[in-house]
Amino acid sequence: MDHDGYKQLLDDLKAESDQLTDCLRTLSFEQWGHDTPAVGWGIQDQVTHLAFFDDATAMALQRPDEFRSFADALMADGMDFPDRIAENHRILSPESIFNWFRDSRADLLDVLSAHEPKDRMPWFGPDMSAASAATARLMETWAHGQDIYDALGVEHPPSPGLRSIAHLGVATFAFTHRLHGLDVPTEDVYVALDAPDGGLWTWGTVDSPEKVRGSAEEFVLVVTQRRHWTETDLVAEGGIASRWLDVAQAFAGAPSRRPPKVTP
């Protein structure tokens, strides 16, 4: 990624962050405790999760040795650490949570802006670049924001960073299979997504028999596991394509799988 692309990525991250911050600013005390689609998590848990990992990302970029010790200690107690982090911060008031997220996100954007896109940093999994870290924060903000918008019964505002998240969903194809203990298919999957502006975003070889088609937003809902693909307009052609969508996971951590809703 070149400097212009990196700047655009950070602008997209800021725009998504600002939209979520504007939404959170309007919440009543009671709304912060509303359940979200993530079982056991309220809106406050979604926000403390984002703030915590913003701080972790800034630490990894600025103080990598300290981060490595911090991450190893966190994972040593089990890979359920996101749930433990949520539980540990439920004592905070909504005002404190809001201020933490707002300030941590602003600090992180400053830290990311001070780095080159190819600068390396440690993480809970493999090391990654600053550009990959920014994309991951964009994806996480969009995904956890979706949980919040769903809990409030409001539409997710249009995201200028949707293509970056969709690209991450495609780029994690091999990672997803390995994470779930599956062999990585050698067959190429062609992905064609309808962009919000009416254009078409594509990945892969168009003459592949394995295809995924549909809207970009619904593809992102699937790869962030906010919807099962059978609940969206996505069309999968071929067994490899459909099996991938069953397990698609654009985020790090333990393997996760969202089952389709059961219709009575």
UniProtKB/TrEMBL annotation:
GO MF annotations in UniProt: metal ion binding
Highest taxon of source: Bacteria
Alphabetized InterPro entries for the sequence: CHP03084, DinB/YfiT-like, Maleyloyr_isom, MDMPI_metal-binding
Residue ranges of domain Mycothiol-dependent maleylpyruvate isomerase metal-binding in the record: 14-148
Protein name, entry field: Wyosine base formation
UniProt organism field: Mycolicibacterium gilvum
